[in-house]
Amino acid sequence: MERRKFIQKSVLATSALTAAAVSPAFAQQQQDKEVYEWRVYEMNRSQAGFDNFMSKALIPALNRLGVKKVGAFSEMSKSEPAKLYLLIPYASFNDYLKVNNALKTDKAFAEAAAEYNKIPVEQAVYSRFHSSLMIAFDGLPKMISAASGQRIFELRTYEGYSEDAVRRKIKMFNDEEFPIFTRVKLNPVFFGEVIAGPNMPALTYMLTFKNMEERDQAWKAFGPDPDWQRIVKDPQYANTVSKIYKTFLEPLSYSQV
């Protein structure tokens, strides 16, 4: 008898959680946040043919299918092998699925990519590409367009020692850090929780500046900021970041970010 009551209570609790998870308010909240695909291509040789494919085939097709702005970047310090970075912002998970399915049957894309697809294996332009999928933070649900003119970008990935550590760091950004970033001119492009990809659990975000001097001044102002000094001592945010990766990027000629 007691066992049956316990099972009934468990089923009711599970049903309540499921109902909350699929409630219209919850679904709308998730729908309102962008999804970011971040690709890192390891190049084999001169990327001229690849640039042509990106600028004349893939990016126009993504734009045509509703992806408004696609970012394409190279590293400021030239790595070996050379890397090309691609940022594809989707309006939602549904949009991510819809766009990628549509690309498979898009005739204009196939025609524009025909020359690229004829490149023989011995002349392959890249060896592999690695992809991460991120969902935007509540505090910054949409990507912010970079200002026009000369720009550099700083990509930062924070690893956490556990899922809870990353959750608390995301809370720290949402509840406390965004106003500080705005005040000291750490100009955000996007903030994303990594939900698929390497080095999880982690979060990744991108900032933009006119040059390295502006970047250095902003970070120099961030450290002693009174609000940062207050929240960095808050026990709820202790041990949220175990490792930080920084990459400095510059936009390629066809980048839309």
Largest sheet: 8 strands, antiparallel, barrel
Q: Based on CA inertia axes, which overall geometry fits?
A: globular
Q: What strand line-up does the widest sheet have?
A: 1-3-2-8-5-7-6-4
Q: How far is the first residue's CA from the last residue's CA?
A: 63 Å
Which fold name corresponds to the CATH topology of the largest domain? Alpha-Beta Plaits
Could you say how many structural domains there are in total? 2
Helix content: 40-55%
Mean pLDDT: 89
Order of helices and strands: HHEHEEHHHEEHEEHHE
Rounded radius of gyration (Å): 21 Å
CATH architecture of the largest domain: 2-Layer Sandwich
* Unreliable spans: 1-28
Q: Assign the CATH class of the largest domain.
A: Alpha Beta
| Structure annotation, total helices | 9
Find the count of extended strands (DSSP E, 2+ residues): 8
Structural class: alpha+beta
Strand content: 25-35%
